[in-house]
Specification:
It is a single chain. By secondary structure, this protein is α/β, with parallel strands linked by helices. About 45% of the residues lie in helices and about 15% in strands. Strands 3-13-12-11-10-9-5-4 form an eight-stranded parallel beta sheet. A three-stranded antiparallel beta sheet has the order 6-7-8. It has a two-stranded antiparallel sheet with strand order 1-2. It binds zinc ion.
Length: about 375
């Protein structure tokens, strides 16, 4: 049976669930009260970035991410593996992946960081994470098979070390069952079905609360790797929730939700908002006439001159504060003036679009 929700120490995750990326502890331009008003239930924060800014000792001294950031809802933390991998892949001089972990020196920094499976788990728990993700070794779907094999072997070995460390710390802290965070492992294997299967089977044997689809979810042309993502979901029994890491384009989210993924995280909707690309449903999202396919929504480019005198809201089918109170003309003006209020109002709107989309998906699955 597919789970409808999961309880975590700081609340409940109700599926399907889109989580914006609060990479440095903040969803850029908006505060936690804005997130609440948009219907956001949980955010994803990133160990790789937070260990650099403001640094782990600062977060720990301030009592963890919840009290530091003012967000009292669930926080999912990312292991940092994907970002460390991106640094090393872009420029091998900046680091390497070894049996021990990932050593890297972020661009522009003189400091070297070592991210081991144990350290990643320790940091995530010390930050107060509700859902901890195991360190994995990411690859590109087009990497040769030998690279994929090594990545799967390492991802399995690291998941085991993460689980041991997680259990050691949780046991030592004498937490009640309700205050125990969840631990998810990531399934790698690139484009190889056999390796995906092997990775999933080995991780399932070890036992985790849920799993993630690992690797960049799009091909080099920007298309969703739908067959591979669906195949990976089918490797995992339905009662284990799965997160489609990095999936955030609305129609891709719909497709992955239909495959059985429960959780999504991406910085795309908020980044698009800041850059002037706003999402607008092609009709009332709660009417069946709005189909959940490529006709679902359109982009509204706020910098477009046609909005200069428009009294219309961004979307007449949206109940966010931006659409309730401000016109396209005003947003266009704020964008031209590079006023910080533009980013806040635009981010609020795109986030509300995503939470409305989740509500529609829930309705559809209740009707089935
Ligand atoms: Zn709106």
């Amino acid at each position: 049976m597919r789970k409808q929700s999961l309880n975590v120490p700081h609340g409940r995750l109700i599926f399907p669930l889109f989580m914006p990326d609060a990479t440095f502890g903040v969803v850029r331009s908006v505060g936690s009260e804005d997130l609440r008003r948009c219907g956001v239930q949980a955010v994803v924060m990133n160990v790789f970035h937070l260990m650099q800014h403001p640094g782990s000792s600062v977060i720990q001294a301030l009592g963890g991410l919840h009290s530091f950031s003012g967000w009292d809802g669930p926080i999912v933390t990312d292991s940092g593996g994907f970002q460390a991998y991106s640094v090393v892949r872009r420029n091998p001089k900046l680091g390497s992946v070894t049996k021990k972990g990932i050593v890297f020196r972020p661009e522009g920094s003189s400091r070297k960081f070592l991210l081991t499976p144990e350290k990643s788990v320790r940091l995530q728990l010390s930050y107060g994470s509700d859902l901890v993700i195991c360190l994995d070794e990411c690859t590109h779907v087009s990497d040769p098979v030998q690279v994929q094999e090594e990545s799967v072997a390492r991802t399995i070995g690291w998941a085991k070390r993460c689980k041991t460390e997680f259990e050691r710390i949780v046991k030592k802290s004498h937490r009640s069952k309700e205050l125990r965070p969840l631990l998810f492992a990531v399934i790698q294997g690139g484009g190889s079905l056999e390796l995906r299967r092997e990775c999933a089977e080995r991780l399932l044997e070890m036992g985790f609360d849920g799993f993630g689809y690992g690797g960049y979810p799009l091909d080099s042309k920007g298309n969703l790797l739908a067959d591979l993502i669906e195949f990976t979901r089918e490797l995992v029994p339905a009662e284990f929730p799965m997160i489609a890491l990095g999936v955030g384009e609305p129609t891709n989210v719909v497709r992955c939700a239909e495959m059985g993924y429960e959780l999504f995280d991406s910085s795309l909707p908020t980044r698009d908002a800041r850059q002037g690309r706003l999402y607008v449903f092609n009709g009332d999202p709660f009417r069946r006439s709005v189909r959940l396919d490529s006709d679902l929504y359109s982009y509204l480019y706020i910098q477009d001159k046609k909005h200069i005198k428009s009294r219309e809201p961004v979307s007449s089918h949206c109940d966010c504060v931006t659409c309730s109170r401000y016109s396209r003309a005003f947003l266009h003006h704020l964008f031209q003036m590079k006023d910080a209020l533009y980013s806040r109002l635009a981010t609020i709107h795109n986030l509300r679009f995503m939470t409305l989309l989740m509500e529609r998906l829930k309705e559809d699955s209740n009707d089935e």
